[in-house]
């Protein structure tokens, strides 16, 4: 038998930023073509811009035009907000990141919700739709998708700082001269993690004696969200996952659990629309499904995560599962173990259903546990 906890925090909620500007990340081949072009034209001089964490949106002085690819390189480090007890940015907590952003996602109130704190983000024009830039290698604006305009860059953070510890440091960003005719797949608009609330941080956790909601998921049984610290305080060390139990090193406040009596099987699922990423998928994309899965002590209560790809009619094209992690796999400890699997996204995929299944093997509580669930597309 085991137990759980309560609290709040934010993390990775995927915002599918439907960009007025479609951002395209340049593949290695495209970047090579750009670099060759720059080398062959000594008049092409890159712009170097300092983007301070405290500066908000910075006018780069670069006018981006449709159908051109812009190489970008960013370096440096910043301290930005992490999370609050209300599941929103701040207060009083800061974490360091590079241009790619923290693994923790801004859920609400940032320049670009749905990507990591500290990420380099951009927009075209003062009122443009923000998009993810990261550390590079670049972006472009398809002529059919948008008009060009002035490029603005910012460090992604809550728009109003909540702590003196926040908004320190910055990035040095080099923006190369644009090159026409470079074909790149749509990728910049793909969130770092397609799973909404994969880290259980989008709402408060409970103490495992009642069911706490899991925003972004459709649940069955007594599937719940538990706070590491509160669960351990209530049930005792080793009787449930605690803040120092083996598991993800970057864990937040909460984890997923099969829940209190009596649910032999509890589930949580969500359907992810893949149509915004068809440019990437048509070029032959891959995927990685990962997560930290586990259970209680020597018991075989367990968690398994499955991704099911479907076509436009709902027909199943392929499935991938990670887990379960049984008692022997955990060495008879109350812990979480990392598991990952991947492959090529099936041709014709238009959606993917992600389902987390918690199964009770012994005791009254369903002690299938999970945290830091992720589904990422790769070019």
* Overall form: globular
In CATH, the architecture of the largest domain is Sandwich
Total discrete domains: 2
Order of helices and strands: HEEEEEEEEEEEEHEEHEEEEEE
Describe the protein:
By secondary structure, the protein is mainly beta. It has three helices and 20 strands. The strands form four sheets. Strands 1, 3, 4, 7, 9 and 10 form a six-stranded antiparallel sheet that branches. A five-stranded antiparallel sheet has the order 11-14-19-16-17, with no helix packed on it. A hairpin with a 6-residue loop joins strand 5 (120-124) and strand 6 (131-132). The radius of gyration is 22 Å and the shape is globular.
Keywords:
7% helix, 5-stranded antiparallel beta sheet, disordered N terminus, mainly beta, Jelly Rolls, single chain, 379 residues, 6-stranded antiparallel beta sheet, 2 domains
